[in-house]
Specification:
With 419 residues, the chain is mainly beta. The protein has four domains: 88 residues, Rossmann fold (3-Layer(aba) Sandwich), CATH 3.40.50; 66 residues, Immunoglobulin-like (Sandwich), CATH 2.60.40; 94 residues, Jelly Rolls; 102 residues, Jelly Rolls. The chain has six helices and 32 strands. The strands form seven sheets. The protein has a six-stranded antiparallel β-sheet, with no helix packed on it. Strands 14, 16, 19, 20, 21 and 23 form a six-stranded antiparallel β-sheet that branches.
């Protein structure tokens, strides 16, 4: 994410700031380490340009990665560090294997090391999956004040996980994709019961907060074909323009539509504020059903973050530049493939819902910032998973009007060029 008001989700800056404040609190805590890994500086230097191409049997990054996977949370220490009394184990890499310095144990494989650590180093904490095994794809960190942080490295929800402490305490929690869970001593469970899930695949009525868009990709000859399955009124062509100024890129864009030059001389109102002065727009156009051709009058270069042209209007856009009528319903998961392929703005989904005493609403937004309204009252904005909202008590046994405002990104308009 970038903190930029051009983004449709910029209003969530407050929530992002609150999360950042909590993150900084944990970043400032003193970590509790049991295992140290000695940085192999001399070994690395001696084998870096070895004429015989002799390399260590194991690489430092691979060793650290395995230790994190095994939930050991090691600290990397300098090669010359002498006082290692605060650590229960010190591990170093040699040319032919791995040594545990305090016992002299030598390992020819990571599997051997994993077994030895499990048998000889007492675990203070562990995170288990529902099968009772160590949870995968997490980063587990314990602090001197006995608080704990668990970070998911997975792009998939891991469901319920259990944090187990050596004093017998346990805490069950939900781990969403790329989620973060924090534990304070005495905490029992963070699982929210009595939750109403809103399916991301449910088709709902909606309203857009901005016109839909098509980013124009020109071929090598400076042409772009697009197709309409119906007549569309009030279409606006937006082109990169710098007036008489000498631009950073040294060019501006003039266009023909179906072999006729289009005047693009109006001040731009359709793009985010930071881009308006770099573009101008045409008068409203009516495009007839069928094939159309946009072409550059003088061949110009397209730039990844400064495209040559866009079309804006009340139309749907699907792959292969197919424009048509917007559907009456969309789903949260698939709106891009339902006509909003290049859309940048908010999508307000609307539905009527009987809450039946539920305490929470959960929505899989695909990681997009979302705000939920019940009968017009905002019940909060969420910027990160878990996307879970507490329902005010006064609504819990009612049938309500539910609005879900999803904020998309400007990436389809100003991001990487398609290949």
């Amino acid at each position: 994410m970038t903190f930029n008001p051009t983004q449709p989700w910029f209003k969530a800056l407050k929530e992002l700031g609150e999360d950042a404040q909590k993150a900084s609190l944990y970043a400032g805590k003193e970590s509790d380490y049991k295992i140290a890994v000695r940085y192999p500086q001399t070994l690395t230097a001696s084998t870096l340009f070895n004429p015989d191409n002799v390399k260590p049997a194991f690489q430092l990054a691979e060793l650290l990665g395995n230790l994190y996977d095994w939930q050991w949370n090691p600290i990397l220490i300098e090669e010359e560090t002498e006082d290692v009394s605060v650590y229960e184990s010190v591990i170093s890499i040699g040319l032919n294997g791995i040594t545990e310095e305090k016992t002299g144990a030598f390992f020819h494989s990571f599997d051997e090391l994993a077994v030895w650590l499990e048998q000889n180093i007492r675990r203070d904490i562990r995170v288990e999956n529902t099968s009772g095994g160590l949870a995968d794809n997490i980063l587990l960190k314990k602090f001197k004040d006995n608080s704990i942080c668990v970070v998911s490295l997975s792009d998939k929800s891991q469901g319920e996980l259990t944090l187990k402490l050596d004093n017998g305490e346990t805490c069950i929690f939900e781990m969403p994709e790329y989620g973060v869970f924090t534990y304070e001593p005495g905490q029992v469970s963070s699982i929210k019961k009595n939750v109403l899930p809103i399916s991301p695949d449910e088709l709902m009525e909606y309203k857009l907060t901005a016109p839909n868009a098509m980013r124009v990709f020109f071929d090598e000859s400076g042409k772009c074909e697009f197709y309409l399955d119906k007549d569309i009124d009030n279409v606006t062509l937006v082109a990169r323009k710098f007036g008489d100024a000498v631009s950073l890129f040294g060019d501006t864009v003039s266009l023909k539509l179906d072999e006729k030059e289009v005047l693009v001389i109006q001040s731009c109102q359709l793009l985010p504020e930071e881009f308006k002065n770099l573009y101008m727009e045409s008068d409203k156009l009516t495009l007839k059903k069928g094939k159309h051709l946009l072409s550059l009058i003088d061949k110009k270069r397209d730039y990844t973050y400064l495209p040559s042209a866009f079309l804006f209007g009340d139309f749907s856009l699907k792959k292969d530049n197919q424009l048509g009528q917007l559907s009456e319903t969309l789903s949260i998961r698939s709106f891009k493939n339902q006509g909003l392929l290049n859309y940048a703005g908010g999508i307000e989904f609307k539905k009527t819902e009987t809450l039946n005493g539920k305490e929470y609403i959960s929505i899989d937004t695909g990681g997009l910032v979302a705000e939920v309204f019940i009968n017009g009252q905002s019940i909060g904005r969420k910027a990160w998973a878990p996307f879970l909202w507490k329902i005010p008590l006064k609504y819990r046994n009612k049938t309500v009007d539910l609005r879900i405002l999803i904020a998309t990104s400007i990436q389809p308009l100003f991001g990487e060029l398609k290949k």
